[in-house]
Specification:
By secondary structure, the chain is an alpha/beta fold. It is 25% helix and 21% strand. The chain has 4 helices and 7 strands; from the N terminus they run E-H-H-E-E-E-E-H-E-E-H. A 5-stranded mixed sheet has the order 5-4-3-7-6. A two-stranded parallel ribbon has the order 1-2. A hairpin with a 7-residue loop joins strand 6 and strand 7. Helix 1 runs antiparallel to helix 2. 22% of the residues are buried.
Amino acid sequence: MTRTVYRLTAKDFAVIEAMLMRRRAFADPIAPMLERKLAESRVIATGAVEPDLATLNSRVIFRVGGGSLQTRTLVQAEASAPVGSGLPVATWRGLCLLGMKAGQSALAERPDGPAEEILLEDVAYQPEAARRAAQDRAAERPRHGLKLVHSASAGDWPLGGRGKIRQTEGDDPGPSAA
């Protein structure tokens, strides 16, 4: 089996690197997996991210060991997603999926058991692709601005109004009326 090559954005790479520094300090069993992830990853520019690449905050559809399909959002921390919908990259499954392309599979080595094959079926949503699509739509949309279509002369006032501001007597009672 060939070695899996992951593609990470600079932000995703920095997140994994920071996790590694923290986890290494406490001899966490996930530290070797983080080291391997960084060693097997290539950093790509945010503008070059394909829409089928799993990045942080992407909604991914995957299966583990030939099981049923699961849909989750790759998150940095468990608290950043509704219960049951997020898959933290601090877990072996989340870490394995981060940086994979749709159709790609890899062995996720668990620190507490046998390795399992994870297949990334699809990336249903990716924030970088959504941002690019919004920018493209905004660029295609015509700029709306005010356009002067008619300029009236000073003598023509709408609805028969006059060109001066008038003050009628008795509008403001002032201090003497109190």
